[in-house]
Amino acid sequence: MNLSKNALAGLTTSFALVPECIAFALVAHLNPLTGLYGAFFICTITAIFGGRPGMISGAAGSMAVVIVALVAQHGLQYFLATVVLSGIIMLLFGVLRLGKLVTMVPHPVMLGFVNGLAIVIAWSQLQHFKADGAWLHGSLLLWMCGLVALTMLIVYLLPRLTRALPPALVAIVGVGVLSATLGLPVRTLGDMAHIAGGLPVFALPELPMTMDTLRVVFPYALLMAVVGLLETLLTFNLTDEMTETRGLPNRECVALGVANVASGLFGGMGGCAMIGQTMINLSSGGRTRVSGAVSGIMILLFILFLSPLIERIPLAALVGVMFVVAQQTFAWSSLQVLGKVPRHDALLIVAVTAITVATDLAVAVLCGIVIAALSFAWRHAREIRADVTQAEGVKTYTPYGTLFFASIAHFNELFDPQADPQQVTLDCRHLRLADHSAVVAVASLSERYAKAGKTLQVLHLSRRCEALLQRSGVMATA
């Protein structure tokens, strides 16, 4: 294990965590220290105890957006209770070993998720080109653009010269020193908020423990948990692919739950995996728990001791790094395959990307899964067919494919009870009955033949389907 390389990667990532967590806290109408405390607890605990070394978690914007209305209507204490409850839900999700559900997310949805978040990361940086709600102009805009370009140039070119230091760290420190030495008129991290503070203090949320409180808190907590788990597990999959290793998703869910509970009890925001900071960590060489732990601990050190230095970092340097992250996160290969993959997969990639940008991750992924499921059902519903033979007055249907709720109509079209002979056989050796709707369809088919005064004999059913059909009044012969 390269300890120094992982420690430097963690330090680099911590610089990128600070402005994001401050911005997300401000979005949620919270004190910036609430976001930084949350980043410390969530990043450190998931790094040490989680199931995916190298992945970075923190106070995430996707979860901050969820609780804006709660904070505005009910205040900080209800928010902290929501964070704790969402952590308990995440913890239970991991304990029940439901992390494997992420394997149900189709690859086109993953591509759309990655592309959408890359666009969101880049788009969110544009807020730093504003001051007091107005766009920068004149020399301030020129210096901002110039330093952003210089930062990106360093990040791109330094790896060609040396890989001894993370390029993002060199870029942030180098541009910071240059800005301070020349006294350039640029906005700094301190212009966003002052981050000096003390140690986080343990305190239970001060609110009545009643059903009325639960009715207020639970819907937000559930939504926060769903959003956090989705973003974490999808980033988990992406990290697995990039590092060519396999993590433990259920362990990650448990650690994330514990981290959110701790954050809420110590006055911090809720959080989950952050794809941008994870990309910075991985590209800087962070592969072990050390990088994540260092990143989290540095956040606390910034609050306690290093705020005067950290507040002097130019926002342009951090914006430049995040622009590079957005460019590297976007799956450019997906643009090349759009014309090569099936049309429904191409549309799915574009749809999930657009929904991620327009709404949020949870909605995009859920919509993507629903669209993929409907597309799958539609395609497989049309694939069912049957061979038909007739000998000695007995007509035999031998269907092929999967019989399920979407294919029943097409299945029924294969048969003609009025024109068929008195004896009809349904040979199910090549037919798979996938759900209860399929069983009902076979039972209904038998009833159609009975009403026509004819007999339908069903052969070669599985024992399970045979028992279900017999309960439905259909006699089956193995």
Automatic annotation (TrEMBL):
Q: Which Pfam families match?
A: STAS_2, Sulfate_transp
Q: Keyword Membrane on this protein? A: yes
The residue ranges crossing the membrane are 33-50, 55-72, 78-96, 108-126, 138-158, 165-184, 217-234, 254-276, 288-306, 313-335, 347-376
Location (main, coarse): membrane
> Which ranges carry the STAS domain?
384-478
How does this chain sit within the bilayer? Multi-pass membrane protein
Q: Which UniProt keywords apply?
A: Membrane, Transmembrane, Transmembrane helix
What is the residue range of the signal peptide feature?
none
Output this protein's name. Answer: STAS domain-containing protein
Q: Which domain of life is it from?
A: Bacteria
Location in the cell: Membrane
